[in-house]
Write a structure and sequence with these properties.
alpha+beta; four-stranded antiparallel beta sheet; globular
């Protein structure tokens, strides 16, 4: 299985648990508010908002919560203003890490994230130090039990996807973010269940580490993800089965 899929699956499982205690809903509310603030409250015209709303629905966020977040972002209701930041740094083994932030207090978040990096054996770097090592892609995970490879490939490529990879128990479809909604709609129309779907940063050149170092990196990624102001965490670590074990 490709490395970013392993990490995406960790985040997906964590997301399900976080939703039960409200943390994931809080993060998704911020994402919706910022998307509405920057692109308007109409999800038909605002693709980023549409994706954020669909993400919220995937973890059963109540409709009224979603609508309230949209209104706050659009200025129809009073709400906190969040800044979008991206922190960059390195983890154990020289693994590159990108951290996407939505915060109402830059100084607090900067200190907290820097401390997490240092405690996890890594260090925060200057802006731009690792961002060039990543590219933004839409990624879909489809169970091999739910689709035939040839049919799925034809469907995905026809919808504008870049590639489809057979990972054994699942297929991974990658696409440009601009056609993410288009590919998702094509899969839904064909009644193909989607295990996970998101727009993420993917490392251009995966970095290999020994299992012990890799586990340290995974612990750092999870610690960063647990911070309330952190929306997404990405790395170019090639996550192996040995690390997961």
């Amino acid at each position: 299985m490709s490395g970013h899929s392993h990490w995406a699956n960790i985040q997906h499982r964590k997301g399900a648990a976080d939703a039960k205690r409200g943390r994931e809903w809080s993060k998704l509310s911020r994402a919706i508010m910022v998307a509405a603030k920057n692109g308007g409250s109409d999800p038909v015209m605002n693709i980023r908002l549409r994706v954020a709303i669909e993400d919220a629905r995937c973890v059963s966020m109540p409709k009224e919560n979603i609508e309230r977040a949209v209104k706050k972002g659009a200025g129809e209701l009073d709400g906190v203003s969040f800044d979008e930041l991206t922190y960059e740094g390195f983890g154990p083994g020289g693994v590159a890490i990108l951290v996407e932030i939505l915060t109402d207090n830059r100084n607090r978040t900067n200190g907290e994230v820097r401390k997490i990096f240092e405690k996890g054996g890594g260090n925060m770097g200057s802006p731009g130090c690792v961002k060039h090592m990543f590219e933004r892609k839409g990624v879909f995970s489809i169970s091999a039990k739910d689709a035939d490879e040839d049919t799925l490939m034809a469907l995905a490529l026809d919808a504008g996807a870049d590639d489809i990879e057979n990972l054994g128990e699942s297929f991974e479809i990658t696409c440009d973010p601009t056609v993410f909604i288009q590919v998702k709609a094509a899969l839904a129309k064909a009644n193909i269940p989607i295990g996970a779907a998101s727009i993420m940063q993917i490392g251009k050149v995966p970095v290999d580490c020994d299992p012990e170092t890799g586990q340290k990196v995974l612990k750092l990624l999870e610690a960063l993800d647990d911070n309330d102001d952190v929306q997404h965490v990405y790395s170019n670590l090639n996550v192996t089965d040995a690390m997961m074990a």
